Amino acid sequence: MVMTWADTDPAASRRLLARYGLEIHQHGPADKLPGSFWGDPEAGLIANRIHVRVDTPLHSLLHESCHYICMDAARRATLHTDAAGDYLEENGVCYLQILLADHLPGFGRERAMADMDAWGYSFRLGSARAWFQRDAEDALHWLQQHGVVDAAGEPTWNLRGETRSMTPDVLS
Question: CA-CA 20 to 30 A from 59: which of 81, 105, 110, 147?
């Protein structure tokens, strides 16, 4: 069973995604999630709002958030449900969601990759972990080219194509 929104500290997720200007909107357990590309209970994405329910997988919350982070400003301006993007951007999204998982207490990259596999993500090497460790150089390079991660492969807390000045107190 994958970790869900109910299994985590909502405040930690909100703080993490607020670094990128994203807002999380929680809906009732039986509510249809607005902006969900895959359908309930998968996270929905409309503009800078991520829509979740208690049964929304945590990896889905991160994946949709990373679409927002990785898309260009023009697509962000009209974003509703379908993040679109190309193959390299999708790989960047998957890579970034694994990195950001380490910033959610009790989740982390190992659990995120296991949950991605359980959900059905498909990678050439057969698992998210194998892809991340041995086949994701293009994704890392793409994220670095667009300023989403730094030379060391750590999040910059910037959206693609934007550089925002973040003081340490905003980041904590």
Answer: 147
